[in-house]
Amino acid sequence: MSDCLFCKIVAGEIPSNKVYEDEVCFAFYDIDPQAPTHFLVIPKAHIGSAAEVDADNSTVVAHIFEVIAKVCKELGLESYRIVSNIGEQAGQSVHHLHFHVLSGRDMTWPPG
Length: 112
Ligand code: 5GP
Ligand code: ZN
Prior knowledge:
By secondary structure, the chain is α+β, with helices and mostly antiparallel strands. It is built from two helices and five strands; from the N terminus they run H-E-E-E-H-E-E. The chain has a five-stranded antiparallel sheet with strand order 1-2-3-5-4, with helices on one face. Strand 2 (25-29) and strand 3 form a beta hairpin. The model has no long low-confidence stretch (mean pLDDT 97).
């Protein structure tokens, strides 16, 4: 999608601090970290949010969860939280599916 911020990050048109990349997904540190470790994992192909996951694209989501487990092991993270916001009320500000991975501090429940 030509006017999508995260599609531009995948394309290298906007610089990012890369954590991991393969043919399916891209992971990079959040520009405004909410924990000592905070990175985002996104599909390279544009999907608007988790609400647009369906039978045709759900293998990408399974792959992303494999990648998160692998990258977190490599980073030595034993406890972390995975978050995906969907829609305005939940706090979604970028309309390209992304999973926040947050670690390195005590977390509260329920989330705010
Ligand atoms: P959302 O609010 O949609 O759940 O998450 C979007 C995230 O993208 C936010 O945590 C925000 O800080 C991050 N973000 C927005 N613009 C950029 C950017 O240009 N670069 C990086 N690395 N992160 C960004
Ligand atoms: Zn996009």
